[in-house]
Amino acid sequence: MKATVWAGRNSVEVQSVPDPQILNERDAIVKITSTAICGSDLHIYDGYIPTVKHGDILGHEFMGEVVEVGKAVTNLAVGDRVVVPFPIACGACWACEHELYSLCENSNPNAGIAEKLMGHSPAGLFGYSHMLGGFAGGQAEYARVPFADVGPLKIDDDLTDEQVLFLSDILPTGYMGAEMCDISPGDVVAVWGAGPVGLFAMLSAYLLGASKVIAIDRVPYRLELAEEVGATPVNFAETSVLDELRDMTAGRGPDHCIDAVGLEARNSSTVVDTYDRVKQAARLETERPHALREAAMSCRNGGTISIIGVYGGLMDKFPIGAIMNRSLTLKTGQCHVQRYMRPLLERIRNHEIDPTFLISHRLPLDEAPHGYEMFKHKRDNCTKVVLKP
């Protein structure tokens, strides 16, 4: 089969690789009908995620048709259409029983590697390094899905792939980012990053009762999309974010701040941005935490900071003093996608959410390298690339 594989920093290739096979009685094989390039895939593309190897199959947002099932999978049948969540979860451990699916205790066969960096291991993830399981991803013609009796969500034929594909990751992730804020009616929410996850976080904040959402980015077409979902845009390349947020909130600051950027944040107009870029290039820190620092300094006293942008290791100059002294609450996590798929599917069915507005480009799988380049460099107003194997 054909698959998108990592070929070194800033390089992916579409290569012929062996077809996946059933390895466990709880596996399924899915023929991919739609997959997507995620913002967190760019962290791998840029070489910032450790334990990624040449030839690893990328991608964790995918859906398709079940073509084979292990004998223990009784909830799915050959021919079913399914969306596959990016965390792999067993459904039976303590974490899964508490709906903390991205922390599954049984799905990462390489837990020892993750424990050395993080203390404890999270769940295995599709297409996201050997530290997180070494599982082949879904930017391919076929994928093996472990614990298929727990993860995949069956989809009726009346909904298109594009309406439901983002249930695999970015829609639940954005929603969880807003949910972690415990929004009350009338609250003001600021979101750093107007990419796909940030836009879904903005939309979700309104669904959960926010009175005002502020979008912080520097790319005009992304800020225009934020305006289309009702957010007030702030271009950090043109103004002081802290000053703008104080002015918009009568000096108090937003009630909740959502970091939807992650480890490659930047603001080239600041000295600390240069500091971060040098330290990251020298591997003296793994993160560029500009957005998170700014969120911590902007949030009102007693407010909430929700982190859904991906971080991988260690950061410098983090304002823990502001968080402690000002009673800020910090909430974060890889999304527990399985918890949110069915409720969000119902919101799609009820026309409360139309995820398709994000899609700017549809490409055949063979053009994945072009899709990565376009998405990374924000060419041709690229917001989301859907690949068709």
Shape: globular
Task: Kindly provide the radius of gyration, computed on alpha-carbon positions and rounded to a whole number of angstroms.
Answer: 20 Å
> Structural class per helix/strand content?
alpha/beta
Q: What is the CATH architecture annotation of the largest domain?
A: Alpha-Beta Complex
How many structural domains are formed by the residues? Answer: 2
Quote the CATH topology of the largest domain: Quinone Oxidoreductase, Chain A, domain 1
Please give the CATH class of the largest domain: Alpha Beta
- Total strands: 17
Q: Could you give the order of the helices and strands? A: EEEHEEEHHEEEHHEHEHEHEHHEHEHEHE
Query: How helix-rich are the residues, as a percent range?
Result: 25-40%
CATH superfamily of the largest domain: Medium-chain alcohol dehydrogenases, catalytic domain
Chain-averaged pLDDT: 96
Tally of DSSP helical segments? 13
Low-confidence stretches: none
Main beta sheet strand tally, sense and closure: 7 strands, mixed
CA-CA gap between termini: 10 Å
